[in-house]
Amino acid sequence: MLAVGVRAEPDLDTVLGALPERALVVGLVGIANHDNMGGLFRNAAAFGADAVLLDDGCCDPLYRKAIRVSVGAALTMSFARAGDAAGMAARLAADGFSVVALSPRARSTFPTCSRRRARRCCSAPRGLDCQIR
User: Fold this and answer.
1) Per-residue pLDDT of the chain (133 residues; tens, 9 = 90+)
2) pTM of whole model > 0.90?
3) What residues contact 2, with CB distance under 8 A and at least 6 apart?
4) Rg of the Cα trace of the chain?
5) Which domains does the chain have, with CATH numbers?
């Protein structure tokens, strides 16, 4: 199958401005593998995330392999580039998000983080230890 389309990625302000009062955003940092990117988009959609933010080091979620692995979620989920990880976290905090980060070397467990979920929350799957700010 062959298709032609116009690629239009909304900017960060547009994506954050369109979010509901209670929102869940997934922030991705340094995801370089298209299979992983597709899987993360698929999971974000399955868990009801409102948007996905990508740092500058992330691969393209609209690459054919990422779209296939995401089962089309990369085409339906709202997403935007958000600069580097620190800038993304700062911007989300300024917009009233509670930033919860997950890392393989975390010092606390996820149930500890999830007890106090704020009305706006950003889950970042890697990069920072699990903490609530």
Assistant:
1) 677 878 888 899 999 999 998 899 999 999 999 999 999 999 999 989 999 999 999 999 999 999 999 999 999 999 999 999 889 989 998 998 887 766 666 665 555 555 455 566 666 554 444 443 4
2) no
3) none
4) 14
5) 27-124 (3.40.1280.10)
